[in-house]
Design brief:
Blueprint: E1 2-7, H1 9-19, E2 25-30, H2 37-46, H3 52-61, H4 67-73, H5 87-98, H6 102-112, E3 118-121, E4 128-132, E5 138-140, H7 142-146, E6 154-158, H8 165-173, E7 176-179, H9 184-192, H10 195-203, E8 207-211, H11 226-237, E9 243-247, E10 252-254, E11 257-260, H12 272-283
Parallel strand pairs: 1-2, 1-7, 2-3, 7-8, 8-9, 9-11
Antiparallel strand pairs: 4-5, 4-6, 10-11
Helix pairs in contact: 1-3, 1-12, 3-4, 5-6, 8-10, 9-11
Amino acid sequence: MKIVAIGGGHGLSRVLRAMAPYPHDLTAIIATTDNGGSTGKLRQTFGGIAYGDIRNCLSNLVADDHLGKLLLDYRFDHDSDLDGHNLGNLMLLALDNLCVRPSDAIEVLCRLMDVKQTLLPMSDHPTQLMARFANGQQLMGETTVDDASSLPTALKLHPSVEAPSAAVDALMQAERILIGPGSLLTSLAPPCLVPEIQRAVNRSQARTILISNLAAESGCVGDLSPERQQQLFETLTGVQIDHLLSHSKDAFDKPNHWHRPLLAEQQRYHCPIRLGKALQELCLR
């Protein structure tokens, strides 16, 4: 089955890890608008797209005993210009400088790390997330939007960018499209604000599944129910969702809303085994 997963941050990486054991043709389209942490510092200095979420996804697909995992996850903590930087981000930046496009740099590193899944940036071109609010205020940058005290009335990318053709092709050929979990405004929305991606998701024959978060988000989205988050996501991105998947202690179904045990015991995160089992069941329906 051809499956495309969309998102960013830690959420998408857990979906990829959950689905990796199953024999699917898996493609990830990853948010590239992060402007905080090591990624933000690199973007300020060198420009380009954000590599942090891509590195995170790649790390979760590399075998645990592969040397590459240690390299991808290594973070400098010395009192120097490298302090706080992640080696995986620097590797992707270096390959980007050696390759024609960021997509090519990611493909090269996937080959070096023996990762069989396809990882694609939402765009090969740098852009920032912008939010507009009811009072007319506009905020630029993921970290700023994350800290907003009220929900935006509109989101857009500045400047507008194009999606890689491989991402559009994967969406049009997909049989299932998975979105989430993750920050609704700053991880899930940005890829779907790329016009070609938004159109491809809506035109695809694939069923689209939104995976809700386990815990309430911090900030203005935190108090919204999964159903309300779906409505907000559809309003802000124009992407239509067919089904919602949420965590519940017991498995049960409602119309277009599936509940499954997804929580890792004594943790706040999705259990890869439980999430993979639930997604495998739902994808095969």
